[in-house]
Specification:
By secondary structure, the chain is of the alpha/beta class. The protein has a single domain, classed as P-loop containing nucleotide triphosphate hydrolases (Rossmann fold, 3-Layer(aba) Sandwich). The protein has eleven helices and ten strands. A six-stranded mixed β-sheet has the order 6-7-8-3-9-10, sandwiched between helices. Helix 8 links the parallel strand 7 and strand 8. Helix 5 crosses helix 7 and helix 7 runs parallel beside helix 8.
Length: 293
């Protein structure tokens, strides 16, 4: 009997009781923290190139993302960070004239193989964008459960199951206590920070094993930003998180490893503390010390 592929076996959503306690938000590079032994490489990029027509946006990137880690991707505007992120769940190919070469493996399976369904890829590798994107015509409950039809092949799960998943996802996104009495109201009636956490809950509802965050706090106030950062840290041991950020202090606060990109190339990747204090490449040092970018 053939073993199921990762696109046939759903990953369980972490229960709120299993999430670690958030650490305090600091304003400088954090001191080394004890953590679990890093897991195996879950998402493996090899020789990745991404194009927009003739524009070569990502150049020959090789990088692995391990289980139970948060990886931050930093670099100046236009360096290919967001394009790289979009390649990881096949969002890049939705842009006209965009194409990808190289290989991305998830659980050892090539994501760009002809037999792989991109919708199934996005179920296992969820994404949250820079600006909150709740569906304006749907309630908070229906926003969170919007992706469940994809998981169940177009059939909505039983109501009791939907309610359980909605509550579980909202709790995992640290939003349940704030919206539990208004689940049937419009999703655009809550604050921007709550909307972004709602989008995270919507991504978590399909039980992904990887969560991609593209500048998730760029449009938020400081308090909302802190809540998102604490949430990212809380999810790190159950969901592999990859976050693109312009904010180097944010990368230092929330990530286990940091990758620095410049002009479409991966310059350096290292444990976050090392990259910010003793980088190996002089270009990385110039960027993190503010000499450009």
């Amino acid at each position: 009997m053939t073993a199921p592929t990762p696109f046939q076996t759903p990953m369980p959503l972490p229960a709120p009781s299993q999430l670690p306690t958030s650490r305090p938000i600091a304003t400088t590079v954090r001191a080394p923290q004890p953590m679990e032994e890093p897991g195996k490489v879950l998402l493996d990029i090899s020789g990745l190139n991404a194009y927009f027509g003739a524009l070569h946006a990502v150049r020959n990137v090789t990088l692995g993302f391990r289980e139970r880690e948060v990886t931050a991707i930093i670099g100046p505007s236009g360096c290919g960070k967001s394009t790289l992120l979009r390649c990881l769940n096949r969002m890049h190919e939705t842009v006209p004239l965009a194409r990808v070469t190289g290989r991305i493996e998830f659980h050892g399976q090539d994501l760009y193989a002809p037999e792989v369904n991109p919708i199934e890829v996005r179920r296992h590798i969820g994404m949250v964008f820079q600006r909150p994107t709740p569906f304006p015509t749907l309630s908070i409950r229906d926003n969170v459960s919007a992706g469940l039809r994809t998981v169940s092949r177009g059939r909505r799960p039983p109501k009791a199951e939907v309610e359980r998943i909605v509550e579980q996802a909202l709790r995992a996104a640290a939003l349940w206590d704030e919206v539990k009495d208004r689940l049937d109201t419009s999703a655009v009636g809550i604050s921007g920070g709550q909307q972004q956490r709602l989008c995270i809950a919507r991504a978590l509802a399909t039980s992904p094993s990887v969560l991609l965050l593209d500048e998730p706090t760029a449009s938020l106030d400081p308090l909302s930003t802190q809540k998102i950062e604490e949430l990212v840290y809380a999810l790190r041991t159950k969901v592999t998180v990859i976050i693109v950020t312009h904010n180097m202090q944010q990368a230092a606060r929330v990530s286990d490893r940091t990758a620095f990109m410049l002009d479409g190339e991966l310059v350096e990747v290292a444990p976050t503390d090392k990259l910010f204090t003793t980088p190996s490449d002089p270009r990385t040092e110039a960027y993190v010390t503010g000499r450009f970018g």
